[in-house]
Amino acid sequence: MLLSNLIKLLDDYKTENFNDIEITGISYNSNLTKEGDIFICIRGEASDGHKYAQSAMGKGAKALFCEEKLNINLPQIIVKDTKRTMANIASAFYNEPSKEINLIGVTGTNGKTTVTHLIQKILEENNEKCALIGTLGYKLSSKDEYKEAKHTTPQPPELQHDLRIMADKGIKNVVMEVSSHSLEQKRVGCCDFNGAVFTNLTQDHLDYHITMHNYFKAKAILFENLKEGAFAIINSDDEYADDFIKSVPKGVKILTYGVKNNADIKATDIDFSIDGAKLTVNFDSHSEKMKLHLNGMFSVYNALAAFACGIAMNIDYKIIIKALENTKSVAGRFEIVSKKPLVIVDYAHTPDGLENVLKAARELTPKQAQLICLFGCGGDRDTTKRPKMGKIADELSDKVVVTSDNPRSEDPQLIISDIMTGIKTVDTQRIFVEPDRRNAIKFLKTISKENDVIVIAGKGHEDYQILKNETIHFDDREEAKKVFALL
């Protein structure tokens, strides 16, 4: 693509040494730069891409996208913020693929991964191709293996590249997890969304957003940018529901879902067992029974969100129900890895997420049995949620094992100390500390009985653990299966 065409979506820029050369790729990491690339100089928290422009030129970069004039003899496109306008460059390079597909974005603190999978299943049950992008990676259909992704929502060059692949393969639907970071950083700035789904908003990422209001404002960007004819799906039971509804532009169809408050799609007669959730879904003039393999009240909300999305896309409700009833659990989301005792692995890593999972697990705990929770908190992340999660685990569990999650650069003991400040009374018969996560999972065997329920929370699908100086292979599901009998 000619450089002049690459910058056609930019509004405010200057050029230096301009030469309308052919660009064959985009890079923002000098180590990965290839011959013919344009190199985008990104200022990050730990490094500044402008310092690596010379190195990128040595790797074959033919032009630079930067925030200041550099003393390098290459064509330079100078803008105010390269990170925030990278989406424009990527979208232009891949010929605006989102305009060729039905793109649905799902945002919220918890539930994004499950909801995207459920929507994909609904569309496929309706004989439509649907690809998925999110925390677990991306895949072109529910039968495909995941291709690894570094972020919940990829950086613009990777995202637009993936969307172009999907469009060229004739995939007309893509459902995508949209994180608050990606919205704040304009990673999806040039994505043309046909629908947006809001799951919930509870404390997370305050190390980045600082306040809940800022966190809400970041999420609301997805809805504010919807165009006439699009649809918005909103959880009416969330305290931010009205704020999200107000953020939706005129001409966008709004559907609400919930359990407690009035909603367009509402669940009643909810019942849980080890096999899943039973409920009645009420919408328009219909009341239809549904039996899910998924469990917990949070799964009911996730199913309702996907159901509402299907209705908004004019899919027959019988097809929607069939798809939801046939869906098994999503990897690392309330995933049962042993039945005696019942061992559940879940990605819950926020106060609300942990509370939801423990309440769902309590529903499955026999009267004379114990509910045991093992969890930790990630390092270099929001520290204020640590004591809150300690308090929740203490109040909702019979026994608690506090351990490490992904400590990153922090001392695991200091993270654990933060968690312990939320625990009211440190009873050595029910509160245990073991910083080594592998040993902590082994320890569960000594404090549990056959009828107990154990929740191993925090990492879910992750098959790694990020330590101070290295990232090691570690999978809660594998470790739990070593300790307890396989299903």
In whole angstroms, the N-to-C terminal distance is 54 Å
Please name the CATH topology of the largest domain: UDP-N-acetylmuramoyl-L-alanine:D-glutamate ligase
CATH class of the largest domain: Alpha Beta
Mean pLDDT: 93
Q: How many domains?
A: 3
Shape call: globular
CATH architecture label of the largest domain: 3-Layer(aba) Sandwich
The CATH superfamily title of the largest domain: Mur-like, catalytic domain
Q: How much helix, percentage-wise, in residues?
A: 25-40%
Poorly predicted ranges: none
- How many DSSP H or I helices? 16
Please describe the structure with a list of short key phrases separated by commas or semicolons.
487 residues, 3 domains, 10-stranded mixed sheet, 16 helices, 23 strands, Udp-n-acetylmuramoylalanyl-d-glutamate--2,6- Diaminopimelate Ligase, Chain: A, domain 1, alpha/beta, 6-stranded mixed sheet, Protein-Tyrosine Phosphatase, Chain A, globular, UDP-N-acetylmuramoyl-L-alanine:D-glutamate ligase
Description of the structure:
There is one protein chain. This protein has helices spanning 3-6, 53-58, 82-93, 112-125, 156-168, 180-184, 206-209, 212-224, 241-247, 297-312, 317-326, 351-363, 385-396, 412-420, 437-447, 476-483; strands at 14-16, 25-27, 37-40, 63-66, 76-78, 102-107, 130-134, 137-139, 173-177, 193-198, 231-235, 253-258, 265-273, 276-283, 286-291, 335-339, 342-346, 371-375, 399-402, 431-433, 453-457, 464-466, 471-473. The protein is globular and about 75 Å long. The strands form 4 sheets. A 10-stranded mixed beta sheet has the order 8-7-9-6-10-11-12-13-14-15, sandwiched between helices. The chain is an alpha/beta fold and 487 residues long. The chain has 16 helices and 23 strands. The mean pLDDT is 93. It starts with a helix and ends with a helix. The chain folds into 3 domains: 3-93, MurE/MurF, N-terminal domain (Udp-n-acetylmuramoylalanyl-d-glutamate--2,6- Diaminopimelate Ligase, Chain: A, domain 1, 3-Layer(aba) Sandwich), CATH 3.40.1390; 97-326, Mur-like, catalytic domain (UDP-N-acetylmuramoyl-L-alanine:D-glutamate ligase); 335-483, Protein-Tyrosine Phosphatase, Chain A (Alpha-Beta Complex), CATH 3.90.190.20.
